[in-house]
Amino acid sequence: MKRRSYFNPARIGIYAFLITAALFFLLPLYVMLVTSVKPMEEIRLGNIFALPLQITFEPWRSAWSGACTGALCEGIRGGFWNSVAITVPSTILPILIGAINGYALSFWKPRGASVLFAILMIGAFIPLQVMIYPLVRVLAAFGVFGSLPGIVLVHMIFAMPVMTLLFRNYYAAVPHELFQAARIDGGGFFRIFAHVMLPMSLPIIVVAAIMQVTGVWNDYILGLVFAGRDNAPMTVQLNNVINTTTGTRLYNVNMAATILTSLVPLAIYFISGRWFVRGIAAGAVKG
């Protein structure tokens, strides 16, 4: 019997591609990390790939609580808490409403459900830049432009089509007999949703939460336009740190601020990556 070779051309090609892809994404992260702990004297030498000769965490302290973001020099710490205040309701509310919409479209089939679903799908593909000005006028008319409720509402609007699609496709894979049995037992709309469907929805809730948290946390343009100066998220503060420069540009501080801004999405992906794949496999793209 011929022994199977572990070093055939196909396998070598796959590993070469995977290593190249990993280096493509990890090399910029390496440069940011080593630059963020170098003093400016080492950075001026010009070797961005060299390990630091003298490690300093002063750039991290400055990025967090001392870097100038305009007129104030308080770092990106305030932007972090603003991002938390924006992300938490902008994740919970769209998931809850999207789950109810998906449940209704999958089982109850209200009149015009197909038309409503088509409108939601069209909304998912409309570029957000097209809707910014109309939303500015509408929010200004209601007096919530530049406020925390205003930016949360905007994120809810843009998240609703995707959240509805995720939950609708997930519930479409649930056996319809389960829903019929709950109806026979006297369950109503919200009772079946709360006691039958929602407990079964953990995999897709994790998928939706990962997508929404990372999307809202990494958002820049909506936070810049709708959040207002007092509620500016971390991404807006990061841009202010990088573009607010007097004298020498502090690359180590800029790199530290960039890493601090990306820590939450990175942590979510590393911790919940397995749940994300499991949720997708459980029916997030079925239906």
TrEMBL record:
| Membrane topology of the entry | Multi-pass membrane protein
Q: Short name of one Pfam family for this protein?
A: BPD_transp_1
Localization: Cell membrane
Origin organism of this chain?
Massilia rubra
Report the CDD domains cross-referenced here.
TM_PBP2
Report the InterPro entries cross-referenced here: MetI-like, MetI-like_sf
Question: Which protein are we looking at?
Answer: Carbohydrate ABC transporter permease
**Record family assignment:** Belongs to the binding-protein-dependent transport system permease family.
UniProt domain ABC transmembrane type-1: residue ranges: 80-272
Main localization, broad class = membrane
Give the keywords, sorted.
Answer: Membrane, Transmembrane, Transmembrane helix, Transport
Which residue spans traverse the membrane? 12-33, 80-103, 115-136, 142-167, 188-211, 250-271
